[in-house]
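Our consortium's second objective concerns turning raw sequence data into structural hypotheses that experimental partners can test. To show how far this objective has progressed, the report includes one record in full. It was chosen at random from the queue rather than selected for favorable results. The single chain below, 353 residues long, was entered without modification.
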Amino acid sequence: MARKRVTLADVAAAAGVSPTTASLVLTGRGRELRISDIVQERVHAVSDELGYRPNIVSIGLSKGTTKTIGFVSDTVATSQLAGDMIRGALEAAQEHGYMLFIGETEGDAASERQLIDAMLDRQVDGVILASMFTRLRPLPSTLDGTAAVMLNALPVGASAVPSVVPDEYAAGRSAVRLLLEAGHRSVHLIGAGPGEHDVPPATVAGRERLAGIRDELASAGLAPASGWLCDAWLPPNGFAAVHDLLARDPTPRALICFNDRLAFGAYQALQEAGLRVPEDVSVVSFDNATLAEWLRPGLTTFGIPHEELGRRAVEVLLGMREKAEPAEASGSPVVHRLAMPLFGRGSVAAVAR
C-alpha cells in the first residue's frame, strides 16, 4: 500500500500553526518575518518527524525556475565514446543546483517531439539538444521562445540558438603543423580530400577538418599529396584507401586519417606492405577512440573533449537564463568551439635527414 504523502497542511496542524506560518518557516523566511525561534524550531521538528517533502516544482515556479534542464539526445546516452558528455553535463548541472532530465530518441523525429513536449510540460528551465556525431540539424519549432543549446550540432538555417562543438578546423590545422614540424612535406589524406568539397555528405567534422588541413598546407605553400574519399569511415575503408595509395605511391611518408577507425585499417595495409609506423610512414588521426592507445605503436590523435562539451553546454544554457535570452527564430548563431586535445603517442617520427 502506497504511503500517504505528507502535506504542508499536515505539518501546520501537527505544529499548531497556520499553513502560511509553516510555509514561511520551511522556505527560510521565518526570521525575516519575525516568527519566534520557538515556533520555527517546532515547525522544523514536526516536518522532520513526519517526513515532509516540499513540492519543489511549485516552489520553483513561484520563483521563476524549476532548477531542471532537459537533455535530449539521439544516441549519446548509450554511446561508449560519448559517456563523458553526459557526465560533464550532469556534473555542471549539479554544481549549479540543477537536475538533468535525460531522454534519448535514436534519431526519430516523432520521439524527439514527444520528449521535448514532455520536458516543457514539466516546466524545465531549458533544453539541450545533443548529437552523437557533429552534424547539422534543424531546431524543433516547439523550442521557439525557450532557452536552448545545441550540443555537438550546428543549426540548419537562421537561428540564434547557440551551439557547442569541438574545434575540428583548428585540429585539422594542428595535425598538419605536427607533420610539418617533423619535416614532412608530402601529406596524404585518408577519408576525404584532396579538393575542398571531397567529403562524405552531412559530415560537419569531415568538412571542417579538411578545411583546416588544406588551409595549413596552403600556408606552407603546399597542397595534399593525394586524397582518398571514403563513403564510410571504418577500418575496411581505411585499409582499402591505403592499399590503393600504395599501388600508386609505394613509399608515402605521412598520412592524415580523418578518424581513428580509418587509421586502424591504414595500419593493417601498411603492415601488409612491409612498411613500419612511424619509421617509414607517420600517421595522425582524430577522435582518440579507445583502441588508439593500444595500437603498436600507439596512435597520435586529436581527441574530442566530450566531458568539456557537456559541461559547456550547461554553462551556456544557464548563462542564457541569467540574461533572460531565450532562443529566437532568427539571428546569428553563436558557436562555442572547444579545443581538441592532442594525444601524442608513437605514430609520428621526424623525417630522416
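The partners drew two points from this record. The radius of gyration is 27 Å. The chain has a mean pLDDT of 87. Both points have been shared with the crystallography group to help prioritize constructs.
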